[in-house]
Amino acid sequence: MEWKKLTESEYESYFDTLSRGLKNQQAEIEIMAVGVLDKEQTSWITLYGVSYDPGEKTVSVICEHIDHHIKNPQEVNVFEGEAGIESIEIIGGGGYKHVLKFKTPVSV
Description:
Blueprint: E1 2-6, H1 8-21, E2 25-32, E3 39-40, E4 45-53, E5 58-63, E6 67-71, E7 75-81, E8 84-91, E9 97-106
């Protein structure tokens, strides 16, 4: 159980593998501004997939009622527990921290 930092070359394949492991997984998305109190954007919602477009340098989080796009990710960290992926933290180009927390770990 530890945080793992991904390199940019891993983003696309990692998110593709994660998306295949999702089965209407419930996820919570938080966006936190650096130096500002944490602010929750959504509650538990159904997550359909996460992808990375290397040409656009954009991570897309596709959910039940919203799509969330993170441009120019500076850092991607994943927390992998014994049962699977529990959380993903993405630092976007604007310095905002985007956190995806899974209701139950995603096995990939």
